[in-house]
Write a structure and sequence with these properties.
Chain lengths: 106, 552
Amino acid sequence: MTSPLQQKLKITGPVVVTANRLGDGAVIYRASEGKWSTDLASAAVVTTAPAALELLNAAIADRLGAVDPYVAPVEVTPDERVLPGNLRERIRSSGPTVALPGERAI
Amino acid sequence: MYVYDDFDRTLVAERVREFRDQVGRRLSGELTEEEFKPLRLMNGVYLQLHAYMLRIAIPYGTLSSHQLRTLAHVARRYDRNYGHFTTRQNIQFNWIKLEELPDAMADLARAGLHGMQTSGNCVRNITTDQWAGVAPDEIEDARIWAELLRQHLTLHPEFSFLPRKFKIALTASAHDRAAVKVHDIGLRMHRNGAGETGFEVMVGGGLGRTPFIAKTIKPFLPKRDLLSYVEAIIRIYNQYGRRDNIYKARIKILVHELGAEKFAAEVEQEWQSIKDGALALDPAVVADIASRFRYPDYEELADSPPELIKARNENKHFRRWLDNSVANHKVAGHAIVTLSLKPEGEPPGDATAAQMDVIADLADRYSFGEIRVGHEQNLVLPHVAQRDLPALWRALDEIGVATPNVSLISDIIACPGLDYCSLANARSIPVAEEITRRFKDLDLAHNLGRLHINISGCINACGHHHVGHIGILGVEKNGEEFYQVTIGGRAGEDAELGKILGPAVPYGEIADVVEDIAAAYLELRERPDELFIDTVSRVGVDPFKERVYATR
């Protein structure tokens, strides 16, 4: 298997780097200045392969901050809001699409 | 209930201490993720889309009320107030924090619960009939043999790094409620011509990307040889199973490529060299294990007591539940009660912490403190006096687990799908929820009769879609969810793989397709008691295909 550090990224649009937080598994996004955020709106958005690779490599190097970082597509709206680029990322960002059973009273 | 001894308790407690140390070293950076991942997987800890998931084994599906309360406590204290019962007699918590996992595991360990062998390339939690020990048609309590296998194979050093995961299921009843033919090893207890009891041994069953029904390699195995023969099978698999390709690593591929006869010959040769050694089962050992399964001190009661007859005659809702969810018990005056975890519009197999607590209380009051978990993702109270059924029904109805839909179209088996699982391509739960809404009319559901729907969110087939009477497989096409439908699958003693109906349909149409199939069945069946699956066998796929695709 090719190491993520050696992967050739194909970027066809805006992307972010996302992962799960080590301590609790929460979905996090790589923000500017080496920080992580649980808010997609704070994510660093890049549009070229070299920029994405740089962001990814920095994320991978942070072995205590995040688990299994990868590049994920996003959509940037005309008013510059950042939205998840596919259903999987939408679910990661917003949670399950169904009501959680633990939230209902019996 | 099986009574754990000091050895069991020490083993589980030691594992918790070990895992606490491993988590600490991961959080401090002493262990990398690459080093830590196989360690957490050995304890049933996965990383899913939103959080860590902890999978806990419920060996042969038997829980005490104390254990169920402990699961409720873990759901409440460490998760989001619910748990998900799976198709392999496990429970999963979907929102556990790594930092809190050692404490959660310590709480579980005090109740004899753990996540060992719920993940990784080892022999997984051994499953059996959720009615074992109480089913009128069983030869013996299959759990005794499952426990023998569990003790022998738990942390078995030779089998801790198999080519791939390995699943064993047993049944000791004429009707297979454990889906043994879709397991790596399926064991069916039966009597031979001489009246002796032993096992039919089947190997190479499994679903996933390449589904197979298991093949019989030993029509009759004496009970004394169970451990040695299973050992021989796993040794041959461990030696010849592929490790170069994860998609071809399961034993089913080896059995298929080698041929069942050749595989059986290899096993036989290995077995002959070990069968009379240390693994030959001493009847005293079997008796010792059997003695640790404590059975209730049942009252002497007659079947069909007056209070039951009265309630049945007076309340049509109770009558419907009684006819659907209550089964005969091997002891007169008692019953086996299935609790449906498939209410309308809710995720299949989920139970809230509050529900678990109430069910534990009801188990204490009405079922000698015992609960069972079935692979259909429902719960069972296995020892209920028939006179108590009206009161139990009212209590179960209050917490939403008395929907009389057991084995009907809304009793859907479904994996967590893309709402939770990092492997999934499509969602399962909202599809299941929508189908239960479409068939919320119980008159319609009962008119349709026994009809199993199984949904998987990807080709790994955790929802067993290949063996659903109607199977639904989620796939992804150009970023959109589509669903491929099969019909005619079965999971029991006459296991069969379903046949593909036609092109996959988009998310928005899958519930319509199920309605079309149901409507076609009502038109095609010869008489009201011809089951859906029998109609499909008689007429084939084409009439259903024509109906579904006529307007698509």
